[in-house]
Write a structure and sequence with these properties.
Layout: H1 5-12, H2 16-32, H3 38-51, H4 66-73, H5 80-86, H6 96-103, H7 106-113, H8 120-123, H9 135-145, H10 159-172, H11 175-181, H12 184-192, H13 198-202
C-alpha cells in the first residue's frame, strides 16, 4: 500500500512539512518491517503519532511536575523525596537528567531496560518516532539498522533512523499480528506499558 503525504498528515495530525519530511523514511521502514496492510499501517501510525506528538518530538521531554512523577511512575520507580527534589515546582525547574536516571535506573531499569551503568537512564532516554528507551533497546535496534547507537544515541534523531527504529520495535514485538486483530489497547500496552493516550491512539 502506497501512502501519500496527505494521508500521513490526516492519519497523524502532523503538519504538511513533517508529512513531507517523514513520508519517504516511513515508507521505507514500513516496507522493511512488513507494515503494509491498511490495518497495520493504521495501527503503526496511531502509535508513533501519539509517541512523537504528531511527528514533532523525536526526543523525550522529562519536564515533569512533582505530582506527575508520582502519578505516572509510582513510588516503586521514584520516591516522594526524589520527586520533590527533581520535579518541576513553583520556583524550581525539573532536573530532567536526574529524573531520567531515577525512573529508568535502579533495579527496574536493569531488569526492564538493560540500564546498568550510572547515567544510562539519561543517555538512553526516549528518542525517535517510537521514543525508543533503554540500553538494551538501543543495542538491539542499532544492530538491526546498522548504527552504533550505544556510542551515538543521538543518531536516533535523524529522520531515517527515527523511522527505522519505530519499525524495528514494532516488528520485533510482534505488533503486526496484533494490528491485524485491531487490538489498539494491546498495541498501546506493548508500546507504552499502559493505556496512556488510548483515546487518541484509537481515534
Amino acid at each position: 500500500m502506497i501512502l501519500t503525504a496527505q494521508q500521513l498528515q490526516s492519519a497523524t495530525g502532523c503538519s504538511k512539512d513533517r508529512a513531507i519530511l517523514f513520508l519517504p523514511f516511513l515508507q521505507g521502514s514500513m516496507k522493511a518491517y512488513g507494515i503494509t496492510t491498511p490495518r497495520r499501517i493504521a495501527g503503526f501510525l496511531s502509535q508513533i503519532a501519539h509517541e512523537s506528538g504528531r511527528l514533532e518530538t523525536l526526543e523525550e521531554s522529562l519536564n515533569y511536575s512533582v505530582d506527575a512523577l508520582i502519578k505516572m511512575f509510582g513510588r516503586h520507580r521514584i520516591s516522594e523525596a526524589d520527586a520533590r527534589r527533581f520535579g518541576r515546582a513553583p520556583g524550581q525547574k525539573a532536573n530532567q537528567e536526574a529524573i531520567a536516571n531515577t525512573i529508568y535506573g535502579g533495579e527496574w531499569g536493569r531488569k526492564n531496560l538493560g540500564n546498568f551503568v550510572n547515567g544510562d537512564g539519561w543517555r538512553f532516554r526516549g528518542r525517535g518516532l517510537k521514543q525508543l528507551t533503554g540500553r538494551s533497546n538501543y543495542d538491539r535496534c542499532g544492530a538491526a539498522i546498522g548504527e552504533d547507537l550505544l556510542s551515538y544515541p543521538d543518531r536516533l534523531l535523524l529522520p531515517v533512523n527515527a523511522a527505522l527504529s519505530a519499525g524495528w520495535f514494532w516488528s520485533s514485538h510482534g505488533l503486526n499480528a496484533i494490528a491485524d486483530q485491531g487490538d489498539v489497547r494491546q498495541m498501546t500496552k506493548i508500546i507504552n506499558g499502559g493505556p496512556i493516550g488510548l483515546p487518541e491512539r484509537t481515534a
